[in-house]
Amino acid sequence: MINGIRFFLSVKPLTPTMLLLLLLLTTAGDGDAQRFAGVKKNDVCSCQVNSSVWAFPAKKFEGVMHLVEKCGESLELLEAQVMLSNEMIPKFQATFDNLTARLEPYLYLNDLGRYTPLHLQHVAQELTKLENDIGSIHQLKPSDQTLQLTKEIGKVRKEVDRMHLSNNFNMKAVKEKLRTLKNGVESCRTIPEPFISKQGVCSQRILSNISTPVSQKISPFGKSYVSGSWGRQTKKAKQNHDDDEEDIEDFYWVQPLISSHRLGNVIRRYKTYDDFMATKNHEDVSVAPSYSHADAIQGSGTVVYGNAVFFNCYMSTDLCRYDLKTKATRRLKIPDLGANNQFPYCYYTCKDWTDVDFAADETGLWVIYTTLANHGNLVLSRLDDQAFNVTQTWTTRLFKKSVTNAFMVCGVLYATRYVDRFREEVFYAFDTATGQDDNTLALPLEKIDSGVASLTYNPIDRQLYMYNEGYLLSYKALF
Ligand SMILES: *[C@@H]1O[C@H](CO)[C@@H](O)[C@H](O)[C@H]1NC(C)=O
Ligand SMILES: *[C@@H]1O[C@H](CO)[C@@H](O)[C@H](O)[C@H]1NC(C)=O
Ligand SMILES: *[C@@H]1O[C@H](CO)[C@@H](O)[C@H](O)[C@H]1NC(C)=O
Ligand SMILES: *[C@@H]1O[C@H](CO)[C@@H](O)[C@H](O)[C@H]1NC(C)=O
Question: Which residue's CA is the nearest one to ligand 4's atom 4?
């Protein structure tokens, strides 16, 4: 090979053909180089190449040429990329530096519990509003509770004033305190007077026991309707004159779920207990044109409170209020509400479609549910049944999927668990007045079959109503 090269290099003017040959001889690595004798003629070297010595490897040559071309292309591409990167990296770096610089002022947000003076200003404003609210409520209906709240708000005011002077404060604790105070003020505003002054039915407000069933009946729709809800209309007509809540009828109602025990649109009403027990003289009310209408009922958390039916709307995270007088449906969105069988009551086996559970007691209307934000633990909201909005919210540490059902009595949330097929037990209580809970209760509750689709309390007759598989049971709450 080296010989071959030397031979050609010794030639002066290199013709293109020769160059080609050179290339061939040096690249076609398998062929042996041949030695040829050159003849000098007019300063030009010519030599005869015996072409039969080696066959010209045209195929290989083409292949190599192709590879070389392609390699060139790839190289160009690579070069372009390198250039682009070199150009772009500083730009990226600059953007990154800019972002870092712009985010730096917000780093304090990582530092939980410590906030800026702006937040402090918001808190001060909220506090001023609370002071005004409690002031006007106290003027209208002074009570021990309004006095107590005024004192506590005064304490927080002092604390916030002190924060203004120092640079170091725990805003989280203050916000938590404000929320509690807000709940307190809202209670003064919205909870009926007899309850607050503790002279009413809730003077002994903690459940001490539950009677054996006082009524037992198969659902008027049949035993195969294993899920639904039932009860008695749960709000007294206001004794006072001049109120917009005229003549609320008292009646018993049953709401059966169809379509895999999930949906419904019919409420069956009985004007009297006798009619209900005898299964006669009923009236069916449709809250929606069909069970798959957007305004239909989903799940067994329904209650009838005053002149309205409250339930979880079909395939939705909204709450629905159907007005029995005006026949109008209103919806209320609860942020983050766990619905659509995501968080049913479970304990022993899950009772499907029990995500949203309405409840009523002496103090008003409630809804029991859960949110992802509260990690699936029970959340309790008080509702204004007329305005249909949330007035207060409490979060508990009780995992919703670890209880079979829940209900409210005198501002206390109670939860039940499965004991066996024929027995339930009230084991947990959460007091909204104090925020304290207790999971050591053991109030027995007899039943006919395993599943509890709904369990609600009625503050008018102080009875509990259970939809137990296809059976309708009621019990006396004992204090
Ligand atoms: C060319 O090479 C072949 C085989 O090597 C040989 O038989 C032939 O005589 C050579 N021709 C010339 C002109 O040298
Ligand atoms: C970041 O970029 C924006 C515009 O893109 C510019 O207004 C701002 O001054 C830059 N910030 C810093 C800290 O460089
Ligand atoms: C509670 O009520 C049940 C009937 O449901 C009764 O058997 C039991 O003795 C009562 N317990 C107490 C402590 O009164
Ligand atoms: C609820 O609605 C009523 C009437 O619209 C309103 O006065 C009240 O402030 C609302 N409450 C809340 C907590 O939004």
Answer: 387
Judge contact between 195 and 202, C-beta under 8 A: yes
E strand residue ranges, 126-250: 209-210, 215-218, 228-232
Q: With the CA atoms of 220, 223, 228 and 230 taken in that order, what torsion angle do they form, in degrees rounded to the nearest 10?
A: 40
49 lines ligand 1 (CB under 6 A): no
Its domain, for residue 128, covers 111-190
Average pLDDT score over residue span 178-189: 78
Domain endpoint, select from 190, 220, 253: 190
Centre of ligand 4 to C-alpha 299, Å, is 27
Distance from C-alpha of 434 to C-alpha of 428, rounded to nearest angstrom: 15
CATH number at residue 287: 2.120.10
Q: Whose CA is nearest to atom 11 of ligand 2?
A: 98
Q: Are residues 305 and 319 in the same domain?
A: yes
Residue of 207, 208, 209 with the most ligand 3 atoms within 8 Å of its CB, for mutation: 209
The protein residue with its alpha carbon nearest to ligand 4, atom 12, reads 391
- Which atom of ligand 3 lies nearest, measured to the CA of 443? 1
448 pLDDT higher than 90: yes
Shared domain for 18 and 142, answered yes or no, is no
How many domains are contained in the chain? 4
User: How far apart are alpha carbons 261 and 21 in whole angstroms?
Assistant: 89
Tens of pLDDT, residue by residue over 15-57, are: 444 444 444 444 444 445 566 677 777 777 777 666 665 666 7
- The structure's pTM equals 0.65
Q: Do both 52 and 85 map to the same domain?
A: no
Averaged over 169-189, what is the pLDDT?
75
Question: Is residue 294, in this structure, part of any structural domain at all?
Answer: yes
Which residue is closest in CA terms to ligand 4's atom 10? Answer: 389
CA distance 467 to 455: 7
